Amino acid sequence: MKGKYDFFDYEKCSSCGICLERCNYLHFTHEESVEEIKKLIAGEKTRILDDCIYCSACNAFCPDDCHPYELILNRAYESGRKNGIPLKAKWVMPLPYPPQNFRSALVPSMPQDEKALINKWEAQSYDLAHEEMMYAGCNLLALPYLANSKVFEDLPIFGRWDLCCGEMFYRGGVFDIVQQQADKLTEYFASSEIKRLVFMCPAGYRMFKEVLPGQFGAKFNFEPVFVAHWILDRMNSGKLKVERQLDISATVQDSCHARIMDPSEEMEPWREILGRIGVKIVEMEPQWGRWLLLWHGCGGQTVFWIEGRTHKCFKGAERGKGNRGIGASNLLCWLLSDCRNGWLSILPRPTNAACHGISQICHWRVF
Ligand code: SF4
Ligand code: SF4
Predict the structure, then answer these.
(1) For the chain, how long is the longest CA-to-CA vector?
(2) Burial degree of 168 (CB within 10 A; 0-12, 13-18, 19+)
């Protein structure tokens, strides 16, 4: 019988193994892939949970849309309930607040004006009487300067650590906390006047648009809007005018979430903006199509609280090295803190080439 959080399509799955065979991290042969997916489906011990970095690409690999990623998450959930979660997982958990985790630990060393942004956004979280607002989740709270641009000067921003979208927990299969956040956010937004809620973080956008309502029963009265669409709308309406062309080349790292959403949701609007502001995009070598390349995202970090491992996250970074020398002068990341910092750890020094795409668009006097 299917469990509450079991979103895998058992009936459609033919155990063909394609999802695992194409995975960039498991290194399974075809035979191993078939064998391991069968074990996963049967709930038996499998090597998948040991080596998976929770990047979600297997969902895109499955030709029958069976959602093998959700099956993996569900088995991680079962394992966590049975065996518990390692204490060191607290380092990546944004809740309960105030914690000491890898994002909130940045706050004490922030300059006063950056801390002031967080305080302003927290105060704004008690006043949701605006039709259009921006949500600051944990990634934006960790890097507040990203939204400190005249591009967003008439968009009220709010955020608090406890209004977490639950993404880190979702990726670890800690579904009880995701459910808790889905319920909390439903209640929090119930009386708000927001009609369009803008998301800077691609992970938060997918959580609010697909995961929380679709899998955890959250109900929101607003339309989630990804920030790239919001910027494009303003460019199209003439509210944002391009004042100067950048005339640079860049390659783009898409977030894990962008890769499993429709390309028109996150990947294409960013590229359109970049093209309009004079950035020549050089796509990374497409091993399986450009948008299925796998990097260092926080899925790698998630895994160490499940399996007590720390090294998996570096596999993606190692693979990223293979894309040096493609001729781009800049590398743009779209997930906020994790991916950019991952790239900075592997690029040759000195470098200023890895940056968040939003800083290219909103902080380089483009508009
Ligand atoms: S989930 Fe999809 S790709 Fe994986 S074994 Fe089943 S049908 Fe094949
Ligand atoms: S989530 Fe990523 S690492 Fe895990 S099995 Fe799927 S493709 Fe492989």
Answers:
(1) 59
(2) buried
Specify the DSSP class assigned to residue 365. Answer: S
Residue 163 has what DSSP assignment? G
DSSP element (H, E) containing 332: strand 330-333
Euclidean distance between CA atoms 62 and 12, whole angstroms: 11
Average pLDDT over every residue of 306-327? 44
Residue 138's contacts (CB-CB under 8 Å, 6 or more residues apart) are: 94, 103, 161, 164, 168
How many Å lie between the centroid of ligand 1 and the Cα of residue 305? 26
Kindly give the distance from the C-alpha atom of residue 182 to the centroid of ligand 2, in angstroms, as a whole number.
Answer: 25
What does the alpha-carbon distance between residue 330 and residue 349 come to, in Å, rounded to a whole number? Answer: 14
Residue whose CA is at the smallest distance from ligand 2 atom 6: 58
Structure-token match 């899925």, residue found: 299
Q: What is the pLDDT of residues 180-207, one digit of tens each?
A: 999 999 999 999 999 999 999 999 999 9
From the list 291, 290, 316, the residue with the least C-alpha distance to 301 is 316
Distance of CA 309 to the CA centre of its chain: 21
Closest ligand 2 atom, residue 57 Cα: 7
158: enclosing H helix or E strand? strand 157-158
Q: Which residue has the least CA distance to atom 3 on ligand 2?
A: 52
Residues whose CB is less than 8 angstroms from the CB of residue 349 and which lie 6 or more positions away in sequence, other chains included = none
Q: How far is CA 333 from CA 62, 150, 295, 353, in A?
A: 26, 21, 10, 11
Q: Cα(100)–Cα(350) distance, rounded to whole angstroms?
A: 30
Residue with tokens 């970049």: 274
Domain range summary for the chain, segments of one domain joined by +: 18-83, 89-235, 242-362
Which residue is associated with the tokens 């979208």?
165
Q: Please give the mean pLDDT across all residues of the chain.
A: 81
Beta bridge partners of 279: 248
* Structure-token pair, residue 43: 């709930």
211 CA from centroid of ligand 1 (Å): 21
DSSP 25: T
Tokens standing for residue 149:
């641009």
Which atom of ligand 1 lies at the shortest distance from residue 17's CA? 5
The three-state secondary structure class of 273 is helix
Task: Please say whether the beta carbons of 117 and 200 come within 8 A.
Answer: no
Q: Is the pTM of this model over 0.70?
A: yes
- Nearest ligand by distance to the CA of 13: 1
